[in-house]
Amino acid sequence: EPEVTQTPSHQVTQMGQEVILRCVPISNHLYFYWYRQILGQKVEFLVSFYNNEISEKSEIFDDQFSVERPDGSNFTLKIRSTKLEDSAMYFCASRRTGPGELFFGEGSRLTVL
Amino acid sequence: AQKVTQAQTEISVVEKEDVTLDCVYETRDTTYYLFWYKQPPSGELVFLIRRNSFDEQNEISGRYSWNFQKSTSSFNFTITASQVVDSAVYFCALEGSSNTGKLIFGQGTTLQVKP
């Protein structure tokens, strides 16, 4: 069964460092998303991406964050200068159509020291 | 504003018991979508169901069933004959009519099924 894959599964970084989280969405999907979950809390929307541009972003998604689809398969989330409060599980998600089932990857755990 | 409330923080049952997880939502949209996800201890989010606001038929999938009641803005999830493998955090989520993929999640209900 096709699935969304994410790398790395866990990354530890120092505060102020840049981090790139990578995602390979399901191959025939056209809509891509990033969500995050701070430990023990609910899942929060960060950004949606379609046709090579951001469709919507939350207030969490400030200038420190950016997304990119550098080729036909990868979808990345970059955090330019990490803060302690960026420590969380980051989930990539994708779906084939605008309204439709939304499938998540297994997550990338980011720990900022 | 859109909101999802899962009032039950934790539920503990013994294997083979039936259990219902509650979900109440708020939205002003006339078209919206409701989701349930399972998050096992390994951490991934597993899609369980998506339901649109015009389809109030209850759904059954094996031991899982969902009861959508628009009149009470609820979308409850029942597991029949629970098993230890059902132990997880379960999230209810709402997507509004904009279809931008912005899901509003509830706080989640931790279900522990004891042998």
Uncertain stretches of chain A: none
Q: From the alpha carbons, calculate the radius of gyration of chain A and give it in angstroms.
A: 13 Å
The helix tally of chain B amounts to 0
Which pair of protein chains has the largest interface, and what are the residue counts? Answer: A-B, 27 and 25 residues
Order of helices and strands of chain B: EEEEEEEEEEEE
Q: Could you tell me the number of beta strands of chain A?
A: 11
What class would the helix/strand composition of chain A place it in? mainly beta
Largest beta-sheet characterization of chain B: 6 strands, mixed
Average of pLDDT of chain B: 94
Write the H/E string of chain A, N to C.
Answer: EEEEEEEEEEE
Please describe what this structure looks like.
The complex is a heterodimer of chains A (113) and B (115). Chain A is mainly β and 113 residues long. In chain A, the strands form two sheets. In chain A, strands 2, 4, 5, 6, 9, 10 and 11 form a seven-stranded mixed beta sheet that branches. In chain A, strands 1-3-8-7 form a four-stranded antiparallel beta sheet, with no helix packed on it. Chain A has strands at residues 5-7, 10-13, 19-24, 31-37, 43-50, 53-57, 65-68, 75-79, 88-95, 103-104, 108-112. Chain A contains no helices and eleven strands. In chain A, strand 4 and strand 5 form a beta hairpin. The model of chain A has no long low-confidence stretch (mean pLDDT 93). With 115 residues, chain B is mainly β. Chain B is 0% helix and 52% strand. Chain B is built from no helices and twelve strands. Chain B starts with a strand and ends with a strand.
Layout of strands and helices, then pairs:
The complex is a heterodimer of chains A (113) and B (115).
Chain A: E1 5-7, E2 10-13, E3 19-24, E4 31-37, E5 43-50, E6 53-57, E7 65-68, E8 75-79, E9 88-95, E10 103-104, E11 108-112
Parallel strand pairs in A: 2-11
Antiparallel strand pairs in A: 1-3, 3-8, 4-5, 4-9, 5-6, 7-8, 9-10, 9-11
Chain B: E1 3-5, E2 10-14, E3 19-21, E4 24-26, E5 33-39, E6 46-52, E7 59-61, E8 64-69, E9 74-79, E10 88-95, E11 103-105, E12 109-114
